[in-house]
Each structure stands twice: as structure tokens, then as C-alpha cells.
Write a structure and sequence with these properties.
- By secondary structure, this protein is an alpha+beta fold.
- It folds into two domains: 125 residues, no CATH class; 43 residues, Arc Repressor Mutant, subunit A (Orthogonal Bundle).
- The chain contains eight helices and six strands.
Length: 185
């Protein structure tokens, strides 16, 4: 099944309220919440090629992040991408709609593309949107450095930092664990 076909199926969800509720129920039934990251990890079937969670909508497979993004963010021709770099995650707070390039970066970061060193983003890393240029990011490079500095000194906890910088605990956790903003010293 092509990506376009998968997207076409997902695009039909929103026009049917009763089915929409059914899809959400099925998503939540296969959810395991990661206590460290807040990720909603899919415990059902997985697409072998991409490592993404798989759910059938009208008997056709789509990714769980796409199904969730559709329910929560509404329909979009763009790709459902992970801000948390966790391919199994479908926590709507960790999802954003991005371009095909965003989606490829998503996969490249997780080491799930076959292109390896031949991939253009490896040879020219400056082309890859990261940090504040990446979709959905609201913090600046300076703020990330500051967050890590404050956290290292042990004065501020995750919650306090999240409040101070106007972001979520999960976001701060990803930053201090260097799951995100890895290119920032
Ligand atoms: Zn996540």
C-alpha cells in the first residue's frame, strides 16, 4: 500500500464522528505511557519497514501517529512527525505536521533509512532543520543552553524549568537528556 493510499484512508476519519470515537478508543486500548518521557507507546502491530505503529482504518493500514494527529490536529496533507523521536509514540503533544523533508529527518535521526552515509543530510548536515528551525520548536538555542546549565547545577527541577521557559516537563526532560537539541553544546 502506498503512502498516498494510507493518507487517503486517514483523511476520511474526520468526516465520521462515530468512527472517529471508535478509532480513538482503539488507539488508547494499545497505549503504554512511558513514565520517563510521557510518550504514549503503541503496543499493537508495527510496520516492519518503518518501525511505526500500525492501525487499520476501514480495513486499510495507516500509522498510529497519523491517525492520532488527524483526530487531534485535524486533517492535513503533510506528514505526522515526532517531536520526541520515538517512532512508537502517538501522544498528540509530541506530534506535529511536517513536510516530506521533516518526515525524512525524523527517520534519519532514528537510523531507520537505508541511505546511510550517502544520504544528503549526512554529507551536508547544515541542511537539516534542527532545534529552533525544526517544526514545532519554540525554544531558542540560548534557552536550551540555559536550561541544561540550570539543570546541571541542580537548583531547578524539570517542572520549575518548564514553567520558567514556557514549555512542558517532557520537553525539558528531552533537552536535559539530550534526546533533542543534540547539536547544541
Ligand atoms: Zn513521544
Amino acid at each position: 500500500m502506498s503512502l498516498a493510499e494510507i493518507e487517503a484512508v486517514a483523511a476520511r476519519i474526520s468526516s465520521r464522528p462515530r468512527q472517529r470515537a471508535g478509532v480513538l478508543e482503539r488507539l488508547l486500548r494499545r497505549r503504554r505511557i512511558n513514565p520517563d518521557t510521557g510518550c504514549w507507546e503503541w503496543t499493537g502491530c508495527i510496520f516492519k519497514t518503518s518501525g511505526y505503529g500500525q492501525i487499520n482504518i476501514e480495513k486499510k493500514p495507516t500509522t498510529v501517529q497519523r491517525a492520532m494527529a488527524h483526530l487531534v490536529l485535524g486533517p492535513s496533507p503533510l506528514y505526522a512527525c515526532h517531536a520526541c523521536d520515538n517512532p512508537l509514540c502517538f501522544n498528540p503533544e509530541h506530534l506535529f505536521y511536517g513536510t516530506a523533508l521533516d518526515n525524512m529527518r525524523d527517520a534519519v535521526r532514528k537510523g531507520r533509512t537505508a541511505t546511510g552515509d550517502r544520504n544528503g543530510l549526512h554529507r551536508r548536515p547544515e541542511l537539516a532543520a534542527r532545534g529552533e528551525r525544526a517544526g514545532g520548536a519554540r525554544l531558542t538555542t540560548e534557552q536550551v543552553i540555559e536550561i541544561r546549565h540550570l539543570y546541571r547545577r541542580g537548583v531547578y527541577g524539570l517542572k520549575r524549568l518548564a514553567r520558567q521557559f514556557g514549555t512542558t516537563d517532557t520537553n525539558v526532560l528531552h533537552i536535559v537528556r539530550r534526546d533533542t537539541w543534540r547539536h547544541v553544546p
